[in-house]
Design a protein that fits this description.
123 residues, 70% helix, 0% strand
Length: 123
């Protein structure tokens, strides 16, 4: 691609001759605030959808319990049978689930210090 410098100089002169208005005060700051400095939203899209779905399921179950006779007894019976068949009613299973959840929480709370090489690379 061959650019003729005379054409670029002509273009610069034509742009300089245009009667341009001054930008409004604080335009740059407003643009930066609306783009790069914008705070993160309180909730992400998938979180809003998840809460909406959970609310809809809760409303649906409430409607079933309120309108169908003895529906709550059937739901509880079904859940208890599912827990019994899956083996989650054993004391040892509950103990190991508690130990696993506790270990996962404690491991997530650990902070591993950066090595000397990583600290020197950052500076």
């Amino acid at each position: 691609m061959n650019h003729d410098h005379d054409d670029l100089d002509d273009l610069d002169r034509m742009l300089a001759a245009l009667p341009l208005e001054e930008p409004p005060a604080g335009l740059h700051a407003r643009i930066m605030a609306a783009t790069t400095l914008r705070p993160e939203p309180a909730f992400r899209g998938w979180e809003v959808w998840l809460v909406g779905v959970l609310f809809a399921v809760a409303a649906w179950l409430t409607w079933i319990v309120a309108t169908i006779p003895r529906a709550s007894e059937r739901i509880v019976d079904t859940l208890l049978r599912a827990i019994d068949h899956s083996g989650l009613d054993s004391e040892y299973t509950l103990l190991w689930l508690a130990i696993g959840a506790s270990a996962a929480w404690w491991i997530s709370q650990l902070s591993v210090p950066a090595s000397l090489r990583e600290r020197l690379r950052i500076r």
